[in-house]
Amino acid sequence: MFKTDAEIDCYHDLILSEYSNLEANAFGFESKESRLDSDQVSATCAKYGVGSQELRDEGLLVPYPDGTFRTMHLDLVYRSINSKAAIWSAKIPLEFKLIRPKEESLPSFAEHDLEELEPFLNLDKKSSGILVGALRDSGYSGLAHHQMHYLKNIISRNDKCYLLVSPTASGKSLIFYVATLASILSEPETHGTKAIVLYPRKALASDQLMKFLRVIHQLNQRLTKENMPRITVGIDDGDTPRSSSSDEVKRQEVFRGLKCIQKGCNGTLRYQVARGSAVISCESCHRSYDEIVATKGDIWGTQPTIIFSNLSALNRRLMTKSAQSMIGSSVRWIVLDEAHVYREELGGHARWLLRRILARFSLLVKGDARFVVSSATIHNPLHFTKRLLGLSTGIYHEEYQKILEASKKKKRKLVINLIVAPNPLRSAESLAEEVSLLLGVWGFSNAKKTIVFIDNVSEVERLRDFVVRTIIRERQAQNDHINPQRNPSVKDPSEPFSWVGLTRGVQEIDSLKLSSIYDHHYAELGPRERARVEDDFKNRASGVLFATSTMELGMDIGSIAAIVQYKVPLTAESYVQRIGRAGRSDEVGRIALGILVVTNSPSQIRYVLGDEYKRLLEPQVEIPVAWENEEIKKQHVIFSILDHEASGQKNTYMDFVSEISGKWLSVADALNSLKTIVSNARKELAEVYLYEEEISGDKSSLAILDELLDKMEKKVTFGLANYNASSGLSVDEGLDKLRQSEDIILQAKRIIEQALQSAKELQQQTNVKELENFESSVRELGRSLSNVLGNVEKLWS
Fold first, then answer.
1. Confidence of residue 777 (pLDDT cuts 50, 70, 90)
2. Burial state string for 325-340 with b = 16 or more CB within 10 A and e = fewer than 16
3. Which one, of 309, 357, 288, lies nearest residue 205 by Cα?
4. Rounded CA gap, 564 and 417, in Å?
5. For the chain, what percentages of helix, strand and coil (3-state, to nearest 5) are there?
6. Each residue of 302-342: pLDDT tens digit?
7. Whole-number Å distance between alpha carbons of 733 and 563
8. How far apart are CA 31 and CA 29, in angstroms?
9. H helices within 390-491, ranges in order?
10. Alpha-carbon gap, residue 44 to 676, rounded angstroms
11. Which of 155, 293, 407, 563 is the right S-S partner for 234, CB 3.0 to 4.6 Å?
């Protein structure tokens, strides 16, 4: 649709001019004066050397019968604030607020040639050439100005923490990838894990691994030619199988929903067993991904160069004897991506965990790890990072906007925000459904994609199902808006119910074809289904995806034109992140259209009134970190005891396979194990004190430690005295049965996923309503099983 930068900039100016007209006319969209007249259009087009007829042909200008025009995006706004289910019904919205479009800058990722990086990598000529060559081979053509600036400083300085705060899609991941790879290549003979990259969600870790895998693959090809050590990577979290004998490996299940990176293949990656070890292979081309270390046992034993994980898993590894090697003295970098999610209680846990890691490298393993904290949305980021890490100095931070000002090739981006509320007699859900239909019809006709964010799984499915099954398939409501034979009045784009100006001449849209572009995404979907949804959405020209926060953070989901947010999200950071998904590319004109549908509750309607919306669009509230919470502190004091024991290769009984299975045959066995932990801590109390002081920064937690040890000792003594002669309860047998239950639930989930896929394929062919009801019932059963499985997994986590 957009052909040149001049055309994009011209169209941006037309939007800004139209907004000024609307503002001058009290946002009376029906007024002729609120639209663009031919003189305004001609003058703006002449400024950029763009033909106005070209803009009309491409659907960017919607002509009105009186000779005026609306830009396509503000015409979408006009239709949204006049949404109604039928031409004869009352419109659903009552109030709206259209905020002045915000002009932002997007970096050019070709401002610096990759070779310009070589002098700053702190590597010999051969190694720097290998890294730059691998980046180019994996698809990177250059670097943005801010990427080069940050990399120069991260590689040359010696700070404890590097803070990267820049908008979504600004290339933060590449910055810390290159920094960690340069560090790895500078110590080719040092064995062990060099970098741990932490993501708040498993799906995000998998998505990032997919992108990083291309670089690692190209890098390894070059390293192999030079007879240099290869780089390996592993994901260590709750979804990682323990060993090659694990059921998911034996069944050759899909690996994280990832696809083969071989050109032209796109086959699904699966677990395989080769020479007694678990490996990852493509089911289509059979390429083996030797770079990936597939199981926990192999990750803990072989120590891959880079580990992707999350704070919860890392917390457990610190306390696990068999996992100690993965957090050894070789670690140089620990990266926390999307760090803004570590707020309130979660932030408090993150603070104490990170302090334990710092104390570990200071006292237990004598390492020199540095941190990268990365996010797109942190107000007062320096203060937040100091609280999160407990550091008062040693944090490098420069403001992104100041760095970007020095860029010579930055481009303009426009963000349009509309907040709309329904009439008290109508529902916000109905409004969200009609807006989703509008954006689907627009996207179908103009090859554009929309994400509808909803913070509730049941609402995701309900809205998506109602739009697809009732509005599109049963009512064929899309054609009521564009077909003059059904509604003669829609010939006139002045009629708010008419969408003819947005469909580029299309007057009939097949219901099955339109409904096929709608899908949904949330964490409870199985890995295979999640991968299918993501892959389909990335690869199709148009689409509407109803999603929870799973699509909010950092995932590469292609060019998005619009974001709908149904109800105000829990945090302003989430809203900014979500709007940041859109408007990233020239393909969508570097324009992000954000529509927030609020309810009529006082807590939500306030965003339409006055300047309250600014709190949402420009968060000015510092992210709270509840590190002073006494209960959280007590938990981590207990954890610190287990850290210390595990670092000395003493049992902490955090690993079922090596420390519990076959050893705990009764309650007394479990109590005696706890007694041993307390006894060992007592013997090494001076060292435990030092570790605890290093964590907290003072002696304040020592009294808590003593109190907790006393309580544990008393409870163990009481337990052994009262339960030692009990009925000989077999703990091992109970745990085995729990494992069997987990396997049965997993098998049931796989059957449900297969049934859903079959029903979906049959539904697309037959459009039988009974199949829709069947599919909905099966999905509900799948969600119930997911909840049960989650509760079972908590017993192992």
1. low
2. bbbbebbbbbbbbbbb
3. 309
4. 10
5. 50, 15, 35
6. 999 999 999 999 999 999 999 999 999 999 999 999 898 89
7. 51
8. 5
9. 400-405, 428-446, 457-465, 477-480
10. 79
11. 293
> Which H/E stretch holds residue 12?
helix 5-24
Note whether 317 and 244 are within 8 A (CB).
Answer: no
For residues 319 and 296, give the distance between their C-alpha atoms in angstroms, rounded to a whole number: 15
Q: Supply the angle between the helices 731-766 and 769-794 in degrees, to the nearest 10.
A: 160
> Does residue 301 contact residue 320 with C-beta atoms inside 8 Å?
no
Q: Which CATH architecture has domain 95-102+415-617?
A: 3-Layer(aba) Sandwich (3.40)
Element (H, E) at 595: strand 591-597
The residue type at 607: Y
Q: Under a CB-based contact definition with an 8 Å cutoff, are residues 501 and 62 in contact?
A: yes
The DSSP letter of residue 274 is E
Whole-number Å distance between alpha carbons of 447 and 69: 22
Which residues, 6 or more positions from 717, have their beta carbon under 8 angstroms from its beta carbon?
none
- Residue matched to tokens 């659903």: 92
Report residue 359 as tokens.
Answer: 């104390």
Query: What stretches of 400-534 adopt beta strand conformation (E)?
Result: 411-422, 449-454, 518-521
Quote the CA–CA distance of 165 and 649 in Å, as a whole number. 39
DSSP readout, 177-237?
HHHHHHHHHH-TT--S--EEEE-SSHHHHHHHHHHHHHHHHHHHHHHHHTT-PPP-EEE-S
Counting runs of H as helices and runs of E as strands, what totals does the chain give? 28, 22
- Tokens representing 741 are 């239950």
Report the distance separating Cα 659 and Cα 595, nearest Å. Answer: 53
Length of the chain equals 797
Instruction: Report the candidate in 29, 129, 42 with the shortest Cα–Cα distance to residue 75.
Output: 29
Residue 508, sorted as left (phi over 0), alpha (psi -120 to 50) or beta, turns out to be: beta
pTM of the model: 0.82
Q: Are 563 and 592 in contact (CB under 8 A)?
A: yes
3-state secondary structure of 701: coil
C-beta atoms surrounding 399 within 10 Å: 12
Tell me the two tokens of residue 732: 């091992």
DSSP assignment string, 21-71: HHHHTTT-TTSGGGSB-HHHHHHHHHHHT--HHHHHHTTSEEE-TTS-EEE
Task: Give the position of tokens 């090809």.
Answer: 221
Q: Residue 600 is encoded by which pair of tokens?
A: 């009529």
**Rounded to 5°, angle at Cα 22 from 20 and 25:** 110
CB contact burial 540-563 (16+ within 10 A = b; e otherwise): eebbbbbbbbbbbbbbebbbbbbb
Distance CA 762, CA 765 (A): 5
Is residue 735's pLDDT more than 80?
no
Sequence-ordered strand ranges (E) for 250-339: 254-259, 268-274, 277-282, 292-293, 306-309, 333-336
| pLDDT for the residue 539 | 87
- For 355, the token pair is 């302090």
593: its two tokens = 């259209």
CA distances from 263 to 11, 138, 287 (A): 36, 11, 12
Structure tokens at 318: 């610190």
Three-class HEC string of 125-172: HHHHHHHHHHHHHCCCCEECHHHHHHHHHHHHCCCCEEEEECCCCCCH
Q: What is the pLDDT of residues 462-476, one digit of tens each?
A: 999 999 999 999 999
Q: Do 789 and 745 form a contact (C-beta atoms < 8 A)?
A: yes
According to CATH, what is the number of the domain 112-239+303-405?
Answer: 3.40.50.300
The conformation of residue 503, written as its DSSP 8-state character, comes to T
Beta strands 449-454 and 112-113 are unpaired
Rg (CA), the chain: 29
3-class secondary-structure state, position 559: coil
Identify the three-state secondary structure at position 626: coil
Rounded to whole angstroms, the Cα distance separating 76 from 446 reads: 13
What is the pairing mode between strands 93-106 and 233-235? unpaired
Joined tokens for residue 483 = 């077909």
